[in-house]
Amino acid sequence: MKITIDTTMCSGHARCAAAAPEVFRLDDDGYALPFDGEVAEGLEEAARDGQRACPERAITVE
């Protein structure tokens, strides 16, 4: 499973990290950082929770 974050769409609400702190990282201003690599086994549903929490729909989980 792969996560893509469109950082140009992120508005810094930090809802992805609130929903799935074990998956999403934020910069010092609360914006989602680009995701490198694959989602760790067992965190797939958390990744989807973070995707659903994003009001800008800046996160794609494939």
Automatic annotation (TrEMBL):
Keyword annotations of the record: 3Fe-4S, Electron transport, Iron, Iron-sulfur, Metal-binding, Transport
SUPFAM superfamilies for the chain: 4Fe-4S ferredoxins
InterPro entries: Fe-S_cluster_ET
Cofactor(s) needed by this chain: [3Fe-4S] cluster
GO molecular function, a single term: metal ion binding
A Pfam family annotated for this UniProt entry: Fer4_15
PANTHER family with a match to the protein in the record: FERREDOXIN
Protein name (record): Ferredoxin
Origin species: Streptomyces sp. R21
